[in-house]
Amino acid sequence: HTTIFTVLEARIQQLGPSAKKVVTEGVMTSKTHANRWMEKLQREKWINPKKQTLHRMHDKPTITTGQKSETNTKVEDSKATASTTTSSKVYAVQKKSKQKVSRVSEMDQQSLSASEKLLEDKEGNRYGDPQLRIRCYLEACVFIDDVARAQSCLLSHHRQLSKRMHLSISAYNIIMRMWAKIGSINHIRRLFILIEEAGLKPNVTSYSAVLECMGRMPECKTWIIKRCLQQMEMDGLSVDDVFRQCVFKKDEREMVLRAVQLVQPEYQPNVSRDQPVCSLPLVEQFYREGSTYPKLDFSLKELRDRFSLQLAMEKATTITIDSVETLKPVTENMAKMRELLATQRKHWEKALLHALKEKKRILSSNSQKSWSTCMYPYLCILDDQDYVNIMLQSLDKLSPSGESLLTMAEEMGNRVYNLYSIRQKSHSQMIEKLGSIYNSYAELLANDTETNGMLPRECWASLEMQRSSGPSLLSDDTPWPMVLMVQLGSFLVDLMVRELKIWSNILNPAQEKKLIPVLYHMYTFRSNHKIGFIKPHPIVTQIQRVAMETKLTFDSYVMPMLCPPVPWTSPKSGTYLLTPTKLMRSTDGAIQHQLLLEKSQDEDLHAVLDSLNQVGNCPWKINKPLLDIIISIFNDKGSDKLCIPPPLSEAPEVPRFNPHDPSYTQAEKAYMKREGLKAKKKVSEMHSLRMDALYKLSIANHMRDKIFWFPHNMDFRGRTYPRQPYFNHLGSDVTRGLLLFAEGRPLGPKGLDWLKIHLVNLTGLKKRSSLVGRLEYAESIMEDILDSADHPLYGRKWWMNADEPWQALACCMEIANASRSPDHTKFISYFPVHQDGSCNGLQHYAALGRDMIGATSVNLMPCELPQDVYSGVAQQVEEFRARDAEKGLKIAQVLEGFISRKVVKQTVMTVVYGVTRYGGRLQIEKRLKEIDDFPKVSFVLVMHSKSLVFSCFSQLKSSMQNLSIHISHDANEKPDCMKQKNAFPPNFIHSLDSTHMMLTSLHCYRAGLTFVSVHDCYWTHAVTVDTMNRVCREQFVVLHSQPILEELSGFLLKKYCSRPP
C-alpha cells in the first residue's frame, strides 16, 4: 500500500529522530525492520507511477483478490482473502511493463507462498481454533495492559512461517488498536509492514485504528490524513463504512471523527440506513400492513426502575437467595455444622487466594512458557477474589457422588468468561449508552405513552441509529472456544484439589489428626471411555448435608429477568443487558449454524427475531398459594406420587461388606457388589432430583412478589427455549403450575367454560369426548373441584389422580375463585389456558402428504368427536393381542388388561421424530418393567399399528431417510451417516412445527393476545382461546399451502447434485 507508506514516512520525518526510538519499554522489535522498511519505500516509489499509468490504460480494471466490492459488507466477520503483493496488483496491459515491475518486486515475492495465504475462521478452515485462541490471548493481554506480552505473541507467530498462517487480520488489528490508544504511529507503521508480509489486506478496522491514532496526535498534518483516506478509497472502502461497520469503545469514534474532520470540516457520519422489509412469502403481507401492537401493563417509570434492578443484578454477576429449606426449624446440630462450614470456608478462601497469587507470580516470570498453555493473562482479567468466589461456588454445588472434570472445568471457565465479558463492556463505557437507549425503548412498551406502531426490533434499531455517537452497543470481542474454557477451568480445579484441606478428625476428635484433601481427582468409565472425576471427601459431604445451608448462590443469567429483555435485532444482539448470549444454541464446536446466520440477509431473519421478542416480552408472576403447598410437601419428605423428590435421608443405605472376607462366596460378593452399585446410583439420582427441585422452588420463592420475564433463543430447527435453565414454563408439571401471567384479563362469557375444559384435559380423561361432553363432565365433578381448591391436602384429594396434578390443582383454585365471584364474566384471570396439538408431528406429515386418513386421525379434518390417535393405536394393538392370545401365545395372554393409551402414547408420539426400536422398547419398559418379554413384542405391534393408520407418513419418512446427503463442516470429526439419515426427517418436521408456532405468535401479537408456547402447546388467557385457535388454524393452512416438498426437492437437487437426474 504505497500511499499509506508514503503517509507514514512523512510522519516519521515530521517526528524527527525521536521516531526511531521504541515507544514502549520492554517491547522487542526486529533490528532489520527499519532497513527493510526504507528499501520497500524506495521500490514502492519507483513502482507507483507505473502502476497508475497502467491503471489508466486499462479499460475495465479487475478488483484484486480480497478487495471489497460492496461497501456494506461486514469486514470483520467476512472471509478475508490474502491480498496479492505489489507486483500482482499491476494490471497486465503491456507485457514489457509488466515484466519490469515484476523484476523489481521479485524479492518480495520470494518470501510469500501459498501456505501463508490465510482464510478467516470460516467453513472448512482447519486453522480456525488456533486463530480464535490467539485473538483471545491478545485481547486478554490488551485488557490487562500487558503490551509487551501481546506484541511478543504476535511477533513470535509472524516470524515463523508455520505459525504465521494462524494469524488473521483481526489479530493484527487488536495490536494496532492498542498502539492507536497510545498514539504510536511508528508501531502502526510496522504492523502495516507485517500485514503485507503475511499476505493479508487491511480492512475498515485497520484504517479505523490509523485514523484514531492520527486523531489522538496533538498535531497531525492534514495532507497525511487525506492520503490515508485516498488509500481507503483505492481499497474500495469509504469513511461511512468505518462508522457503520467498526465497533468502537470509549472515545474511539470521536477520535476517528476528529481526524476526518481535520480535512473535511463539514463531514458527519451517515450511519442511517433504510430498514429492509421482509419479503418472504409467509410473512410479506404481515410486514407490509401497518398495525398497532399491545403495550405492557406497566408505567414508564416502573419499566425504567426495573431496568435499573436488572442492570445491577447483571453487574454483580451472581445473586444469593434464601433456600426454601430455611423454613425448617434449626436444630442444635444443624447450627453447629453451619458454623463449622463457615469457618472452613474462611480457611479455604484464604488458602486459595494465597495459592492463586503464588501461581500468578510464577507464571508471570516464566517467559519460556508457550503462549497456548500460559494462563497468566486469563488469571489477571478479573480480581483475585472473583476467581476464589467462582471456585468456592463450584465446591458448594458439587454433588456428593462427584462431577465430571470436563463438565466442572467448562462451567468454571464459562463463569470466568461471562464475568470477563461484563468487565469488557463496563470498560468500553457502553453501559451508560445502553441505559439511555433502554429508557427510550421503554416508551414503546409503557401503558402511559403514545402508540407508535413499531415492533420492538424496529424501535430498538431506530434508537441505536439515532444515538450512534459514543461507544458501540455491540461487542466485537472474540468469544472463547470451549477448549480455552476447559483449560482455564481445569487450572482452577487443579488449584482446588491441591490447596483445599480439612482436618480428618473434625467430626470425631478421637481419630488421628491430619490434613486431608477436600477434593479427590478420580477416574471412572462411561461407555468404555475413561474420564476424570472430581469427588468431595465424605466428611465435607456430611457437613454440608447436616448444615442444610440457608443460602443459595446463582449466576445472574440463570435468574428470570426483572425487566423486559433487550429485543433481538441481529444474531449477535438481544435478551440480556450485559451477559453474552447466542441467538442459536448449539453443541460446542459446531459452526454450521453460525455460517447460515451470517449468510442470511438481515430482513430474512426479521420474522424469527420478532417471534422470539414476542414470546420473551410476556411478563410472569408466581402462584403463591400453590407455591406454599409445594414447599410444605418438599420440606416434609416429599412425595413420589406428586413428583416432589424426597431428601437424601430417605435414600436407601448403601450396603457395605468386606470383599476379602472368606465367608462370602463369589456369587454372594457379586450380588452385594451389584446391590451396592444400585444403591449408589439411586442416591445419586435422588440427590440430583432433590437439588433440581430445591433450585426451582428457591427461585420461585425468591420471585414470589416480583414480576419477571423469560428471554428466549432457539435451536437449529427453530424451536424456542427460555434462557433460564432452572425455572421456566418449559419445565415440569410443578413449575408450570407455579406460573401465572402477570397481566390479567376478564374471563368474558366463555372464559369459565374454557377453564373447566382445560381442567378436564389435564386429567387425561375424556380424550374422545367433544368440548360439550368435557364441559358436562366438569360440571358433574364440581364438588370434587371445589373440595380440591379448598382442602388440597386433607380433603378428597381428587386432583392428585390427574395426569398433571399440580396444574390441575392450580386450575381448580382458579375455577373456585371465578365461580364464587359476583360476576364470573368480569373476574380478572391470570391463569394460562393450554391448547395442545394432536400429535403435532403426525399432523405435519399428514398435511405434507395430503393423507386424508391420517389427517382425520389427528383432527385435521372435521369430525363430530375429537379423534385420538393414541387411543386408536392402543385399540389396534389390543386387537392384535387378543388375536394372538386366542392362538395360545403366552405373552399375549399375560398382556391382557395392560394395553392402554398411556402405554403407547410416548412411543407413537416420538416415532414421528425418529425414535429407534431400542428407544421405543425402553419407553414402554418403564411402564411394564415386570414383564420381561413385553418391550420387544409390544413395540413391534405399536410400529405395525402406526403404519396402518399413517401409510403416507411411513412413505414420507422413508423417502426423507433415503436422501443420500453427505455433509460435514467439522474438520475434526467424521460424520455418522446413519445418524444423519435418521435425524433428517424429525428435524425437518420440527422446523415446520417451529415455523407454525412463529407465524401464530406474530399474528397473535398483532391481534393483541398474550401468547407463549411450549413447542406445539400454545398458552393464552381463557378469554382469548377462541381467537388463538382461529389464528392457529389459519396459519397452519397458510404454511401447508406452500409447495414445501417441491421446494425441498429443488433445494436438495441444486445444492447437492452435480447435474439434474
From TrEMBL:
EC number: 2.7.7.6
Keyword Nucleotidyltransferase: yes
Domain (DNA-directed RNA polymerase N-terminal): residue spans on this chain: 308-617
Compositionally biased intervals (Low complexity): 80-92
UniProt entry keywords in alphabetical sequence: DNA-directed RNA polymerase, Nucleotidyltransferase, Transcription, Transferase, Transit peptide
Domain of life: Eukaryota
Oxidoreductase in keyword set: no
PROSITE patterns the record matches: PPR (PS51375), RNA_POL_PHAGE_1 (PS00900), RNA_POL_PHAGE_2 (PS00489)
Annotated stretches, region: Disordered: 49-92
GO cellular component, one term: mitochondrial DNA-directed RNA polymerase complex
InterPro entries the record matches: DNA-dir_Rpol_C_phage-type, DNA-dir_Rpol_phage-type, DNA/RNA_pol_sf, PPR_rpt, RNA_POL_N_sf, RPOL_N, TPR-like_helical_dom_sf
Example GO molecular function: DNA-directed RNA polymerase activity
Stretches forming PPR repeats: 168-202
Reaction catalysed by this enzyme: RNA(n) + a ribonucleoside 5'-triphosphate = RNA(n+1) + diphosphate
Main function: DNA-dependent RNA polymerase catalyzes the transcription of DNA into RNA using the four ribonucleoside triphosphates as substrates.
Stated family: Belongs to the phage and mitochondrial RNA polymerase family.
Protein name: DNA-directed RNA polymerase
Source organism of the structure: Cyprinus carpio (Common carp)
